[in-house]
Write a structure and sequence with these properties.
This protein has ten helices and ten strands. It has 338 residues and is of the alpha/beta class. The protein has a single domain, classed as TIM Barrel (Alpha-Beta Barrel). The strands form two sheets. It has a seven-stranded parallel beta sheet with strand order 1-4-6-7-8-9-10. The protein has a three-stranded mixed beta sheet with strand order 2-3-5.
Length: 338
């Protein structure tokens, strides 16, 4: 009951990459970089275990960015043909690679790090992949008829990858879809259709992570204009409750999301964000427990998983693991009262 987990990413150590950056530059090259990625992955698993996290991840140590880490091993994408474009409904601009031909995997994208992580932990293991809608919001389209056709092409490749990850022994495959909080009508339609295509035939649990973004300035500024209540989830949760996705990960602590919206996810596991990744404040166990207690009014304990609001890649390593320790301690407080 109340097994803890994280949204996915963790800070990279300074000997692997630049620290406290969302898109860090690698410190190594060639085999030295491959070895550093392996070491960082094993360390991330150990530190999560030491912090008391029940369902761990590889920390995304082998990826510079949660979307582009998958795209880098695909044919049909030209990283030299960059287009400056607004993403997340023009919340911020980025230089995005272009899809210039039919999409195809060159081979397994993440099998190496998945096997490594599986070999070095006996705990339940989650692996994250970018969701189709979020991918198409992060690339320029110079080949497909429209965003929907391109999303389905990406979904097919994600499905190939997810089936392989499940066969390796991954327990939960999570698709990160921050775009679901931006394009709500589309998310409830073709966004979920693309997710269904991505999870077709996948033998392990599946999850979708929907948040209000990393704790970077563009996202913080956007949140400040969302009003007294953030009800974006209200528009997509009913469709997710009717979907074939097993778990939904959401942002909660220090947000203005009405807790009662979680009731719209009846029948699903809910990963409730009880750690704020946009502040340097380390939550106390009591603060974490209060968030969990609020969620328990709407989600059965056996379906509730205390989690982080979003990925922790831009934080310092010391801060991230203090927060993870608080997450575990807060969950233990609530379990102790059960």
């Amino acid at each position: 009951m109340l097994e803890t987990t994280i949204a996915g990413s963790l800070p990279k150590p300074g000997w692997l990459a630049e620290t406290e950056k969302l898109w860090p530059t690698w410190r190594q090259e060639g085999e030295a970089l491959a070895a550093a990625k392996r070491d960082a992955t094993i360390l991330a698993l150990k530190l999560q275990e030491d912090a008391g996290i029940d369902i761990v991840t590889d920390g995304e140590m082998s990826r510079q960015h949660f979307v582009h880490g998958f795209l880098e091993n695909l044919d049909g994408i030209d990283f030299a043909k960059k287009v400056r474009m607004g993403i997340r409904d023009n919340r911020y601009e980025a230089d995005c690679p272009s899809v210039t031909g039919p999409l195809k995997r060159r081979g397994s994208v993440h099998a190496t790090e998945a096997r490594l992580a599986r070999a070095h932990t006996s705990r339940a293991l989650k692996f994250t992949l970018p969701g189709p809608m979020t991918i198409v919001d992060t690339v320029a389209n110079a080949h497909y008829r429209d965003r929907i056709e391109m999303a389905m092409a990406f979904a097919d490749l994600l499905n190939e990858e997810a089936r392989e990850l499940a066969a390796i022994g991954i327990d939960v495959i999570q698709f990160d879809e921050p775009a679901f909080n931006v394009y709500m009508a589309e998310a409830a339609g073709w966004g979920i259709e693309a997710l269904h295509r991505a999870i077709d035939g996948v033998s392990c649990k599946t999850a979708v992570h929907i948040c209000y973004g990393y704790g970077i300035k563009a996202n913080i500024d956007w949140k400040s204009g969302l009003g007294a209540e953030w009800r974006q989830y209200e528009k997509v949760f009913p469709a997710l409750a009717a979907s074939r996705i097993d778990q939904v990960s959401l942002e909660c602590i220090n947000s203005r999301v009405p807790a009662e919206l979680m009731a719209l996810l009846a029948g699903k596991d809910v990963l409730v964000g009880a750690i704020d990744v946009a502040t340097d404040h380390v939550e106390t166990p009591d603060e974490v427990a209060a968030t969990i207690d609020g969620a328990l009014k709407y989600v059965p304990a056996e379906r509730l998983y205390p989690c982080t609001n979003c990925g922790m890649a831009p934080l310092s390593t010391e801060l991230a693991y203090k927060k993870l320790t608080a997450l575990s301690a807060g969950a233990a407080l609530v379990r102790g009262r059960a």
